[in-house]
User: Which sequence fits this backbone?
C-alpha cells in the first residue's frame, strides 16, 4: 500500500486547522493569552512549511500572510482584537478551501480577506512597540526584541541543545545553524565535551551542543522560528547581549555577571565562579571561555527545560480500514474462543481447562483494548460546535452561550463521525428556531443571552447525548393542528404531548413552513431520526412551552462486541446484553400458575411485569419444567423475560441483520455461537416497551 | 434482459421446487450447501423466516416457494441451500436460497430462450425472467432481483402506515 504524501499532509492539515480554530475561538474570550497566540502561530507556520513542501503553494502563500499577522500579535505589536479573530476564522475557512481544492488563490473573496488583513495589520506598523510581554516564559524580549526588519541590529546569545536522538529522528543541526547564519553574522561555538571515546561512540547519537552569538536586525521571534519544528524537544535559550565592540575576556565575564543579575536566579551562586574564572581566565583564555560558557549553561539549562509542559500524548495515525480489519479479526477470535470453551466444557483435563481460561481472559482483554482504540472522547465532536454557534449567533443576531458537559464520554469513532450531521442539525435548530431574539427574551423575562447546553453521559450500555436550549419550546397546539392536517391523527383524538413531539420526526411533516416558523424545530428531523436509528439508537424530545426543549439521543456504546447472557427459549437460543440484565430468578410453578391472569412478579416488594418469550416467539416446544425469569432494565423501567433456560455468559460479536429483516423489531442483531449456530440478540428496550404496553392494556381492561 | 439474450448461451443452475424445474443465473451462486442447522427468526415474514451461518457470516435464508405460492414442506435429505449474492436497495447482500433439490450447472442455448409467455403461467409473471427449453422440458429462469425486491416485499400499505404513527 502506498501512501500519497499529499494525503498525509491533508490529514495533518485537518488537525492543524482544528488546533487553529480552537485557539482562535479561545482567543475571543482571552485575547491576552499568549499561549493561544503561540498555538495559532505554530499551526500556521507548520501549515505554511509543510504546505509548500507538498506543493500546496497557494495555501502556503496565504498562510504566510496570516502567520505574519499573528507574529505581530505574538510580539505584542498587534492586539488580538475580535476583528482579527473573525478575520482569521474566515481566512482559516479559505485555507481549508485551498486544501480541498474548492477555493482558488485568486478568488475575489480571498483577495478581500488579504486586503482586510493588511488593514488590520498596517496601522500598527509604525506605532512604537509597547512593553514587550513575556514570550514562552524564556525571558524578556531583548533590546531589539520588537524591532522590525530594517531596525536596529541586536546581539543575541543562543544555547542550542538538541535531544540526543535528534539525528535519529531526522533533524540536521547543521541546517539549523545555517538558518541562523542567514539571519545575520554569527559565531558558532560547538561544545564537544560530551563526545565519548571511540568505543562508546554511537554515530546516531548527538553528543554536541552549540552556543551561538548572533547579530541580527530580525526580531527574537524569527530566531525562535528557526527551531520551530524541534522546539518542543530541545533546550533553547535566547538571551540578549548588550552591543559592544571588541571586548576582552574579563569584560565578557563581567557582562555575563550583569546578565545573571538581570535574571533573578541564583546570581549569588554564580558570583564566586566568575571570580574563579577571572583568576583562571588569564592562563588559557579561549578554552576557559568555552568552559565558562559550558559551566554557565549547565547551571542555567534546567530552568527553561522544566518549564515546558508535554505538548500531548504520543500518538500515531492508523487508517480506519486497518482498525476495522483488526476488529474483524478479534471478532473471529472471540467466536473461535467460544467454540474452544464449548469443546473443553466436556473434558476433565485440568491443564487444558486452565489454558482455555487463560486464553479466554486474554481475548477478553484484547477485545477491550481493540475497542478502546476505536473509542474517541466526544469532546472532539462537541468542540466543532463552538464555531457553529459562534457563526450562527452572529448571522442570526442572537446571543448564545454554548455550554458542554461530559466531553470525556467515549464513543466508537464511527458513531462519532455519523453523529456529526444530526447534531449540527439539532444545534442549528435550537439556535435558529428554539432561541428567541434578545429583545423577545427580555420581554419574556429571560436573560438576553440564550443558552444551549450539550451534554453526554453513560447510562448502562448506552450513551445519552442531549441538546438543551432555554428557548420558546415546542408549540404542541401547532403540531397537533399540523398532524391533523397531515392525517396522522384524528381531529378529536387526545394525543399526549410526548407523542405529539414525536410527530416532528415524521418525514415530510417538518418541512411545513408554518410550523417551522412558529414552533421551531423541524427541517430534516426525519433525517436525524433515521441516522440515529441506523446506529441502533433512539431520539426523544421533551419540551416545556416557553421555557425549554431537550432532545436526547440514546446510542449503544459500541457497534461491535458486547458481553451477553445466552438463554434458551423453546428451540431457539437468544442473547441478552449483559449490561441490561439485573438478575435472574426462578419462575416457581406457584408463581407461574398464580400469574396466569396477571403477568406480574413480586421482586422484593416491587411489581415487575413480565413477558413469556415462549408465547411471544410462538415457540412450538413445550415449556421447560423450571422456567427462569431474567429481569432486564432500561433506565428505570424493568421487565421480566421468561425463558426456558439460562445457558451462561457469552461474548457476543454483533452481526447486523440484513435489510430483509429490517421489519423485525424484537432483535437488534445476531451472533454466531460456539457450535456454529446462530443466536438472535434481543432488543431489550423494545421488549420493555412491549412489556409496558401490555401492562397498560391490562390495567385499562 | 436484452444483454442476456445477446449472449449465445446462458449458464444456469437448475433446481427443483415443488416438483418443477427452475433455474437461476449461475453467476449469482457462490456455493451450494447441504442443509445445516438454521435459526428461526420469530416475527419475520415467512419468505425470509430464518438465518444461517455461512463461514462466519450471518445470512438470511429465503424460501422461494413462499413467493411462488407453493406448499412449503419440511426439508428432506435432498434439500440444499444456494448461497447467492443479490442487490438489496443497491447494496450487494449474501442470502441463502432454499431449494428442494439442486440438479446441475448447465447451459441453455440462446435460441432456446423464450420471452415469458403472458398467459398460461401458474407463477407471478414478474418473478420469471424467461423460459428456456432443454430437450423436451421447459426450464423456468427466475428473476432473482425481483424475488428480493423490498418494494415488493414491504410495499403493502398496511406496513407503511403504522410506521409513521409509531415514529
Assistant:
Amino acid at each position: 500500500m502506498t501512501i500519497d504524501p499529499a494525503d498525509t499532509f491533508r490529514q495533518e492539515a485537518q488537525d492543524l486547522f482544528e488546533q487553529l480554530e480552537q485557539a482562535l475561538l479561545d482567543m475571543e474570550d482571552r485575547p491576552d493569552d499568549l499561549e493561544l497566540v503561540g498555538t495559532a502561530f505554530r499551526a500556521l507556520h507548520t501549515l505554511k512549511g509543510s504546505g509548500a513542501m507538498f506543493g500546496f503553494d497557494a495555501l502556503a502563500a496565504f498562510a504566510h500572510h496570516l502567520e505574519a499577522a499573528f507574529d505581530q500579535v505574538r510580539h505584542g505589536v498587534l492586539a488580538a482584537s475580535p476583528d482579527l479573530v473573525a478575520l482569521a476564522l474566515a481566512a482559516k475557512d479559505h485555507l481549508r478551501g485551498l486544501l480541498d481544492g474548492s477555493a482558488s488563490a485568486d478568488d475575489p473573496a480571498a483577495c478581500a480577506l488579504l486586503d482586510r488583513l493588511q488593514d488590520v495589520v498596517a496601522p500598527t506598523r509604525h506605532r512604537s512597540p509597547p512593553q514587550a510581554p513575556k514570550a514562552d516564559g524564556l525571558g524578556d524580549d531583548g533590546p531589539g526584541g520588537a524591532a522590525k526588519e530594517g531596525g536596529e541590529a541586536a546581539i543575541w546569545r543562543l544555547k542550542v541543545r538538541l535531544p540526543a536522538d535528534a539525528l535519529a529522528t531526522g533533524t540536521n543541526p547543521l541546517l539549523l545553524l545555517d538558518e541562523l547564519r542567514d539571519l545575520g553574522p554569527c559565531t558558532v561555538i560547538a561544545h564537544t565535551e560530551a563526545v565519548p571515546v571511540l568505543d562508546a561512540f554511537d554515530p546516531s547519537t548527538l553528543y554536541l551542543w552549540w552556543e551561538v552569538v548572533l547579530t541580527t536586525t530580525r526580531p527574537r521571534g524569527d530566531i525562535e522560528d528557526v527551531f520551530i519544528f524541534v522546539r518542543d524537544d530541545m533546550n533553547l535559550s535566547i538571551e540578549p547581549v548588550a552591543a559592544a565592540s571588541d571586548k576582552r575576556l574579563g569584560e565578557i565575564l563581567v557582562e555575563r555577571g550583569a546578565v545573571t543579575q538581570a535574571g533573578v536566579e541564583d546570581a549569588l551562586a554564580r558570583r564566586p565562579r566568575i571570580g574563579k574564572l577571572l583568576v583562571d581566565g588569564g592562563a588559557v583564555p579561549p578554552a576557559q571561555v568555552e568552559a565558562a560558557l559550558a559551566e554557565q549553561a549547565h547551571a542555567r539549562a534546567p530552568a527553561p527545560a522544566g518549564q515546558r509542559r508535554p505538548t500531548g500524548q504520543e500518538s500515531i495515525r492508523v487508517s480506519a480500514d486497518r482498525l476495522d480489519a483488526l476488529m474483524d479479526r478479534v471478532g473471529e477470535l472471540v467466536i473461535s474462543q467460544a467454540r474452544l470453551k464449548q469443546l473443553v466444557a466436556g473434558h476433565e483435563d485440568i491443564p487444558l481447562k486452565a489454558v482455555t481460561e487463560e486464553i479466554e481472559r486474554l481475548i477478553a482483554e484484547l477485545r477491550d483494548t481493540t475497542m478502546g482504540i476505536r473509542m474517541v472522547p466526544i469532546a472532539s465532536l462537541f468542540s466543532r460546535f463552538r464555531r457553529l454557534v459562534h457563526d450562527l449567533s452572529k448571522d442570526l443576531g442572537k446571543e448564545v452561550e454554548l455550554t458542554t458537559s461530559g466531553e470525556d464520554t467515549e464513543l466508537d469513532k464511527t458513531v462519532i463521525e455519523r453523529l456529526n450531521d444530526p447534531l449540527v442539525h439539532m444545534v442549528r435548530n435550537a439556535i435558529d428556531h428554539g432561541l428567541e431574539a434578545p429583545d423577545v427574551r427580555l420581554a419574556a423575562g429571560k436573560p438576553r443571552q440564550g443558552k444551549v447546553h450539550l451534554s453526554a453521559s453513560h447510562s448502562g450500555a448506552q450513551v445519552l447525548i442531549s441538546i438543551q436550549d432555554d428557548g420558546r419550546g415546542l408549540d404542541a397546539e401547532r403540531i397537533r393542528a399540523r398532524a391533523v392536517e397531515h392525517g396522522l391523527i384524528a381531529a378529536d383524538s387526545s394525543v399526549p404531548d410526548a407523542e405529539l413531539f414525536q410527530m416532528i420526526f415524521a418525514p415530510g411533516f417538518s418541512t411545513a413552513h408554518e410550523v417551522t416558523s412558529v414552533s421551531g424545530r423541524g427541517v430534516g428531523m426525519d433525517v436525524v431520526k433515521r441516522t440515529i436509528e441506523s446506529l441502533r439508537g433512539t431520539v426523544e424530545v421533551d419540551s416545556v412551552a416557553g421555557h425549554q426543549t431537550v432532545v436526547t439521543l440514546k446510542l449503544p456504546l459500541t457497534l461491535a462486541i458486547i458481553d451477553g447472557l445466552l438463554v434458551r427459549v423453546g428451540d431457539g437460543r437468544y442473547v441478552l446484553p449483559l449490561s441490561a440484565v439485573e438478575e435472574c430468578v426462578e419462575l416457581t410453578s406457584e408463581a407461574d400458575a398464580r400469574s396466569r391472569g396477571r403477568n406480574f412478579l413480586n421482586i422484593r416488594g416491587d411489581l415487575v411485569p413480565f413477558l413469556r418469550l415462549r408465547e411471544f416467539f410462538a415457540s412450538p416446544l413445550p415449556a421447560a419444567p423450571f422456567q427462569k425469569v431474567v429481569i432486564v432494565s432500561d433506565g428505570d423501567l424493568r421487565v421480566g423475560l421468561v425463558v426456558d433456560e439460562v445457558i451462561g455468559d457469552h461474548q457476543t460479536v454483533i452481526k447486523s441483520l440484513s435489510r430483509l429483516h429490517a421489519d423485525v423489531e424484537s432483535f437488534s442483531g445476531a451472533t454466531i455461537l460456539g457450535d456454529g449456530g446462530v443466536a438472535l440478540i434481543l432488543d431489550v428496550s423494545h421488549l420493555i416497551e412491549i412489556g409496558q404496553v401490555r401492562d397498560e392494556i391490562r390495567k385499562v381492561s | 434482459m436484452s444483454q442476456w439474450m445477446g449472449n449465445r448461451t446462458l449458464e444456469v443452475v437448475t433446481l427443483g421446487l415443488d416438483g418443477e424445474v427452475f433455474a437461476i443465473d449461475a453467476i449469482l451462486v457462490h456455493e451450494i450447501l447441504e442443509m445445516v442447522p438454521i435459526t428461526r427468526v420469530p416475527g419475520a415474514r415467512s419468505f425470509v423466516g430464518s438465518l444461517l451461518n455461512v463461514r462466519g457470516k450471518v445470512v438470511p435464508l429465503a424460501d422461494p416457494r413462499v413467493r411462488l405460492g407453493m406448499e412449503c414442506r419440511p426439508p428432506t435429505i435432498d434439500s440444499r441451500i444456494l448461497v447467492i449474492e443479490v442487490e438489496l436497495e443497491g447494496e450487494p447482500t449474501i442470502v441463502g436460497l432454499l431449494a428442494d433439490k439442486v440438479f446441475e450447472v448447465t447451459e441453455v442455448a440462446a435460441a432456446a430462450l423464450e420471452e415469458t409467455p403472458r398467459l398460461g403461467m401458474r407463477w407471478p409473471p414478474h418473478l420469471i425472467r424467461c423460459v428456456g427449453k432443454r430437450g423436451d422440458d421447459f426450464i423456468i429462469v427466475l428473476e432473482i432481483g425481483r424475488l428480493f425486491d423490498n418494494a415488493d416485499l414491504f410495499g403493502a400499505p398496511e406496513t407503511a402506515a403504522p410506521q409513521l404513527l409509531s415514529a
Observations:
- Residues 383 and 447 of chain A are 25 Å apart (CA to CA).
- Residues 124-150, 301-310, 511-523 of chain A have pLDDT under 50 and may be disordered.
- Chain A touches chain B through 35 residues (CB under 8 Å).
